[in-house]
Amino acid sequence: MRNKAGAQLIILIILMLVSLSLAGGIFYLYQKEQALNVSLRREKEELNLNIKITQTNLDESQKEVAALGLKLNESQAQIETLTGNLDQEKNTKEVALTQMRQLKSDLEKQKGLSGDLENKLKQAENDLSQIRVKLNDLESKKAELETKVKDLEEQAKQAQTRDVELGKIVISPDAATSAEALLTPESDLSSELPSTSPSVSVKEERQESPSGLTGKVLVLNKEYNFAVINLGSADGVNIGDLFSVYHNNNYVGDVKIEKVHDSMSAAGFVSTAIKDNISEGDKVAQQIK
Q1: Which of 134, 150, 200, 242 could form a Cys-Cys staple with 168, CB 3.0–4.6 A?
Q2: How far from 143 is each of 34, 156, 174, 277, 285, CA to CA, in Å?
Q3: pLDDT tens digits for range 152-194
Q4: CATH code at 270?
């Protein structure tokens, strides 16, 4: 009986020990679970905090991305503008290079022209020197002609008062050389008339006709395109008067009075055709205006 009660007591003690062990295990597990829950709550809170921080960072990153997108667009626009400016500068540079090449070419041409002009200037200076020498020679010959013409005037006056023949008028070689100066408006008529020989009448064949004055060609100089006729201011001849010329009674052309003296006048050819047909001694007839 005692053994049975002892066995029951032992079983009861074992059961109590087992219960205590279970209770301790359960309490341990409960404590561990509580600690785990606390740890999980902390982790959750930290995770939420990290999520909020990450969201904030994400928002800021999105803002930065948007700002960077705007800057990127602006940069692209600036790049396009710079590209356009660069192309324009390239075109401008090419145009400038083309113009520079053209200017170099023009400069070379100008240098060539300058050399030609210098040569021409030197030639012109040489020609001017020669002309001055010729001019001095012509002045000397003009002085000689003036002296001869004065003698001719005196002979013409004597012919008018005494109505005698003075002989035929001829052009000396010096007078032919000075003929161009004689026909210029600045020269005096007394310097344009040739030398004389004592065998011609200045008044020979000088007549008054119903259609105007008639006379004849005394002196002819085809080199300088002028003729001297035996009609002058004493006969009513004026500068600008026109005279028709007749060779063997055939009309050959007209001459125009350019210089007038008392008893004779110098007339230039109106056309070049008359030069080949006019001769000394041809008849001249004044044209009535």
Answers
A1: 200
A2: 153, 20, 11, 32, 33
A3: 666 555 544 443 333 333 333 343 333 333 434 344 433 344 4
A4: 2.40.10.340
The token pair that represents 70 in the structure block: 């705007």
CA distance 218 to 263: 12
What confidence score (pLDDT) does residue 91 get? Answer: 87
Look at the chain and report how many structural domains it folds into.
1
Residue 101 covered by a domain: no
88-145 residue pLDDT tens: 888 888 898 888 888 888 888 888 887 887 888 888 888 887 888 877 877 777 777 7
Tokens of 132: 């001055």
Residue 62: pLDDT over 60 = yes
Tell me, yes or no, whether 50 lies in a domain.
Answer: no
3-state class (DSSP) for residue 116: helix
List 268's β-bridge partners, or say none: 226, 256
CA–CA dist 39, 42 (Å, integer): 5
- Write the CA distances from 230 to 47, 109, 187, 190, 242, integer angstroms: 142, 59, 20, 15, 14
Residue 280: domain span: 145-286
Task: Tell me the C-alpha distance between 244 and 216, whole Å.
Answer: 10
Q: Identity (one letter) of the amino acid at 1?
A: M
Q: How many CA atoms lie within 13 A of 269 on its CB side?
A: 18
The DSSP call for residue 193 is S
